[in-house]
Please model this.
Amino acid sequence: MSSLNLAGVSLHYGPEQTGLPVLQNVSLNLARGEFISVIGRSGSGKTSLLNLAGGFVAPSAGRVTVDGKPVTGPGPDRAVVFQDDALYPWRSVRDNVALPLKLRGIDAATRAEKAREWLAAVGLQDHQDKHVWQLSGGQRQRVGLARALASEPEFLLMDEPLGALDAMTRDQMHELLLSLWEESHAGALLITHSVEEAVFLSTSVIVLAPTPGRIVHREEFEFGRRYLEGEDPRALKSEPEFIDARERLLAAIYEKELVDG
Ligand SMILES: Nc1ncnc2c1ncn2[C@@H]1O[C@H](COP(=O)(O)OP(=O)(O)OP(=O)(O)O)[C@@H](O)[C@H]1O
Model:
């Protein structure tokens, strides 16, 4: 089973490397088929952690590897989705999904097939010829997901992808995200400010505390898997276990005394 691993990773920005590190001695392992969310206060290093996993920055200490091989930069095995969907507004929905495949030298017929397949998976089969500027925020994020998944990455790295959406669209996106995660067999790493989102979606939630950014709490959950097995999402989110988990994680975010369990 393929895995993305951070082992004893620390990160300082800048050449001087003075002061406290942004991340200190962070270790985590993301296997395909797992869904890890990272939560924590502003400035705790969540985006920095995703940037390390994506290969956009290199660690100051420790190792980032995929299947034991050092990560030296971004790669097609790790697709990234940002809050700002980073689409080309003047291009068609289909072209936005197919473009990264074109850049990788994949032939036109395969590109068209993959774009069709993943746009159908996110429910946008009837919008392929529209321009991105004609879509709603939720639809644009679905294009971003289709684009990331069309490359069939082993790992899907997401930085607050749903942060700009209204609550109802966000709930729908949770259910879609779980289905896509199951269908793609990717390992998912999600940065989010929503504790509820983390508890519902993840097989594992990591809490970072700031200054220096470090892991102070980890927990495993099965709510997402239970949704995929057919349980009602609203009923799951109302369960006492769900509410207790949410409160525990909020306490872990705001109380420094709670340490890794
Ligand atoms: N490119 C950079 N150069 C220098 N410092 C940076 C850079 N990116 C982030 N930082 C600093 O690193 C720390 C962690 O930032 P990061 O964006 O990783 O945190 P975060 O938990 O994602 O925050 P937020 O929840 O506000 O998005 C902050 O103090 C930030 O100012």
Notes: Residues 13, 22, 40, 42-48 surround adenosine-5'-triphosphate (CB under 6 Å). Confidence is low (pLDDT under 50) at residues 257-261. The chain has two domains: 3-77+154-254, 85-152. The chain is about 40% helix and 25% strand.
